[in-house]
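Reply to dn_fold:

You asked what the input looked like. This is it:
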Amino acid sequence: MIDVIVAGGGPVGMMLAAELRLHDVDVVVLEKALEPTKIVRSLGLHARSIEVMDQRGLLERFLELGTKYPLGGFAGIYKPAPERLDTAHGYLLGIPQAITDRLLTERAAELGADIRLGAELVGLSQDDDGVTVDLADGTQLRSRYLAGCDGGRSTVRKLLGVGFPGDPSRVDTLLGEVEVTAPPEEVTAVGTEVRKNQLRFGAMHVEGTLFRFVVPGAPVVSEDRADAPTLEEFKQQLRLTAGSDFGAHSPSWLSRFGDGTRLAESYRSGRVLLAGDAAHVHPPIGGQGLNLGVQDAFNLGWKLAAEIDGWAPEGLLDSYELERRPVAAGVLENSRAQMELLSTEPGPQALRRLLGELMDFEEVNRYLIEKNTAIAIRYDFGEGHELLGRRLRDVELKRGRLYELMHEGRGLLLDQTGRLSVAGWADRVDHVVDVSEELDVPTALLRPDGHVAWIGEDQEDLDAHLPRWFGAAAG
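and this is what came back:
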């Protein structure tokens, strides 16, 4: 029997597969497509996702192929980021999703995930011992758990019958890469002028005569819009918005997205779990979608591995939904708010001007940036130190950097006293005796995802908290 089947070979599925393989979990990834998509739905990684890649030793791969941009802004209202953000990675990493997909697929394959292209899940059933998956070719697979990472139209979610309530889409936005006959400088100049009044429009020069456009679409008449726009539809919306279609032709790809927001009623049904767009959809404004999904996988991976390895404490796997569903609900709210602020109607424009004034206050600006980049997330671990429940930023130690010590996906006790021990949990938790001038607590216990689970300096208190996240001590 397979340990975990992951349905969906996008960035969320591959991130989850890689996290599971760190713990020697047997993983099969089912991806119905035969080759990677050319569609670019995401253009960058925010600070928290950059930290995630750093925690697993992947960041250099991304930095080599990406471009750093300064942080700042909300709903297209640009304000320079405040100083001293709580991260060592205070920038946006511009990198097309196709490259992110490739790097995470390579990572999962390196770690030994079994990746099967052209394998479409069409049915599932589960019992107390596992999940049976039906494939389109008539074959079946059996696993202990199934993770649905198969997008906003998730087959897994639909087969489970999990509700997906929310607000329906009202407007479309079209995306595409097309060749143009107009001079590139003319396209860029017109795009700059159009964006003064229509912030949902964008014209990005890729190379030569190739441009990537973002264009407001027509009002939505039905939510069932799985088909990509035609070239003629794309050109028509270009003409309506920019006054020209720039001689657009020979599209590399065309796509559309709506502004609907939906959140799964549950992230888990028995032995089946949902992650990424299978659990939540929202407008892409703010660039949070891929980041949110990758962070779902980062939260789920070590917990599911612990369950399979047999040391997970009661309720650990359920904490995935308890922690991540409220985060998604917050992203739905702020992305919907940002979408409203892009409207050309007088009311939203008045609100936009007011918010621009408020963002001149440093704490307002900081709050919005930390929300968009996910570095402000604090899970509810109960009362305690202000760091409890937050992820700990990468701090400098005498021996190097904290995140360099987290590549194996284990828990970590950062002990500045040298007096404590993780005896009984050493197979799950690394004990690092070191000091950091950036950290003013004696000792911090970190989960494999970097969130602070305990702070203190008393051995009995530590021994009482270790089982909550790392199960019973080894015999």
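The longest strand covers residues 210-219.
Hope that clears it up.
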